[in-house]
Amino acid sequence: MCNDIIVAKEKQATLQAAFVSLHEKDRNKFMGTIHEYAPYKIIEYGGEGEIVEKKSRFIAHVQATHTEEEAVSFIEAEKKRYWDARHHCYAYIIGEQGETVRYSDDGEPSGTAGRPILEVLTGSGIRGLTLVVTRYFGGTLLGT
After folding, report:
1. Rounded to whole angstroms, how far apart are CA atoms 108 and 134?
2. Which of 7, 61, 125, 143 has the fewest CB atoms inside 10 Å of its own CB, making it the most exposed?
3. Which pLDDT score is estimated for 142?
């Protein structure tokens, strides 16, 4: 019983901290559904970014995904979208506690692409998302 109270107080403190950080105009909306918010981060909508390193082009896409099926579907869509790319490395974390976690190096040397992507996602505390990094090889091996 005592442990349940401590856990409940920790969750309440997390929710209160989230509430305090909201802008004034969003507080009323938040107050009505405070019990629905969990003490972990989620993304509201997807995004993308691109960099070029040693003539290789890296295109990253992130999307909110709540099931493994959604994650796999998003990854497959990115592979079709960039069908001519060399690699499609990805990582995803699904579930409130991160129950489902997967990553892939997709032909890059083992542990050099998917694992670092997963570590960034894990370190951010965000759940319910999939990140795909597409690489167009520029002719130079990175890390050499």
Report:
1. 11
2. 143
3. 65
